[in-house]
Amino acid sequence: MSTLEGRILVTGGAGFIGSALVAALNQRGISDIVITDLLGSDEKWRNLTPLKFADYLEADDFRKRIGQNQAALGDFSAVFHLGACSATTEKNASYLIDNNFNVTKELAAWSLAKNIRFIYASSAATYGDGAQGMDDQDPNLGRLRPLNMYGYSKHLFDQHAQRKGWLDRIVGVKYFNVFGPNEDHKGDMRSLVNKAYEQIRTTGRVGLFKSYHPDFKDGEQMRDFLYVKDAVEMTLHFAEGATTAGGLFNLGSGNANTWLTLTRAIFSALNLPPKIDFIEMPEALKGKYQYYTKADITKLRNAGYRRAMTPIEDAIRDYVQNYLATNRRLGD
Question: What is this structure's pTM?
Answer without folding.
Answer: 0.95
